[in-house]
């Protein structure tokens, strides 16, 4: 059973010297684990010094409660920015943002505390390696061909064409992001979908979501297959005995958009 080693609440800005020491420790970290250690230990050592304590005075049995501490929002954001900049070398910035939520102190607004001067260094690798399998190149070509077919059939001024094109371009930009590392592998995940693995271990999909062809009659809940067969859209849904009016024509390219799924 654990207990909190209750420290007196500390709510104050860090001094310029404390910030400088902390930024140096963050910059000198040589991997993600050491970066977290340098940031958290350095930050709380500064705040605990008011009570003659250090981070080492706490343990799993006598835990430090980060909620007992608070610094100005401008300083909190600058520290998070410094951590993100350093993590860019390994592509672990998004992961750290989640990890640090429960480890960082709270923050408060103080208009009298300006944003600290922070020397920003671009730590990203100089080259991003994008590895695309043979099957994935076929999918990319198929996606482009599908979009062109949508434009030809529905018109290049149609919302169907523009929605598909915009979503495809938007999702492709994820392939070139270095936020999760500088080595990205792209594989096939269906006729019009891709699965992507990044250097940080994050895996996500660029998935095509085609529109279901359905009867547009408000009282009819029929789903219409490519051969014109009608079936209930959901179990028990009403299918009227009439000539169905499909939401897009039989034989037409299927409207839809691409979305990001992690």
Anisotropy-based shape:
elongated
Q: What proportion strand?
A: 15-25%
Mean pLDDT: 93
Distance between the termini: 36 Å
Largest sheet: 5 strands, mixed
Beta strands, count: 12
**Helical residues, percent:** 25-40%
Number of separate helices:
6
| Rg for CA atoms | 27 Å
Which structural class should the secondary elements be placed in? alpha/beta
The count of domains is: 2
Which regions contain 5 or more consecutive residues with pLDDT less than 50?
Answer: none
Order of helices and strands: EEHHEEHHEEHHEEEEEE
In which order are the strands of the major sheet placed?
A: 6-7-8-9-12
Task: Explain what the structure shows.
- The protein has 262 residues and is of the alpha/beta class.
- The chain has two domains: 3-108, no CATH class; 129-211 and 247-261, no CATH class.
- The protein has six helices and twelve strands.
- The protein has a five-stranded mixed sheet with strand order 6-7-8-9-12. Strands 2-4-5 form a three-stranded parallel sheet.
- A hairpin with a 5-residue loop joins strand 10 (222-224) and strand 11 (230-232).
- The longest helix is centred in the middle third of the chain and has 21 residues, at 134-154.
